[in-house]
Amino acid sequence: MQVVQRVFQLLEEQGKGQKELAHFLNVSPTTVSAWKKRNSDIPSSYISAIADFLNVSCEYILTGKKNSSSEFSEDEIKVLRYYNRLNEDHQDLIKGEMVRLYEDEKSLNDVEFSDELAK
Question: Using CB atoms within 10 A of its CB, is residue 57 exposed (0-12), middle (13-18) or buried (19+)?
């Protein structure tokens, strides 16, 4: 699979549009459309930004191989993709809820640990 095909496949899989990508890259939508229509190489100067937009590595964009040193599981990557689609206010809500859940879990674990020590 060519780079351009991989990029457009990822756009489709992630429910993102060509216009969104064009806006992110600060190019015209016709530029992105031309890459697809002509099945032409995407200039290398855009690869890093496209990888950021699609939440994948440059290696994946270029080769289709997942970075074996990735510290994230597929589920974690999926969560990050959803998170990145949210507006800033909703991202702040998610972060707040995560902190609350972590603190709740930490408190439970501290109680359980104290119970273990008492035995």
Answer: middle
pLDDT digits (tens, 9 = 90+) for 78-93: 888 888 888 999 999 9
Contact 6, 47 (CB under 8 A): no
Q: Is 73 left (phi over 0), alpha (psi -120 to 50) or beta?
A: beta
Cα–Cα distance list, 13 to 43, 60, 75 (Å):
22, 15, 15
- pLDDT value of residue 77: 80
The segments of the chain whose pLDDT lies below 70 read: 67-71, 111-119
Q: 8: burial class by Cβ within 10 Å (0-12, 13-18, 19+)?
A: middle
CA–CA distance, 102 with 90 (Å, rounded to integer): 18
Calpha distance 8→35 (Å, rounded): 10
